[in-house]
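With this grant's support, we have settled on a layout for protein records. One resulting record is reproduced below.
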Amino acid sequence: RVSTATGRVPVVTTHDGHRLRYVAGKIQAGDSLVLNHRDNKVTEIIKLRIGKVAMVTGGASRGRIGTITALERHPGAFDIAHLKDDADNEFVTRLSNVFVLGNDLASVPVSLPKAKGVKIGIVQEREDKLVAAEARKQAAATQAKKRRK
């Protein structure tokens, strides 16, 4: 959120409650800031634009990561963001649920979750869990054989 304090001092309020005064650059709602905690200074501003990498923080697509392909403005209603993930799956969410992570996937300054935010189908997820469970069972059985010897 961008606002002004007493004496027309420009103030930026971040999603986690930090208040930054006199931030250089044109910052709008929806932009992300890379902050140096030692100096409490903004090192980079990542704009909410087409082609940027973003994570969905709410709704049915929560946790998915993709590249913004289109932004639709609807005055008086919810603005819409169209995203596309690494598996070329396209999905749509409200613009208020989008958090910009970086300029491209290689330059994201945070570590990404497993599968890099690509939604895995229910069947594939179940198969992966069964394979992992079988591998754990096999490892336990081989350790039990070693203990008997």
User: Anything to note?
Assistant: The longest helix spans residues 122-148. The beta strands are 2-5, 9-13, 19-21, 32-36, 41-46, 53-56, 65-72, 80-84, 90-94, 98-102. The longest strand covers residues 65-72. Residues 141 and 147 are 10 Å apart (CA to CA).
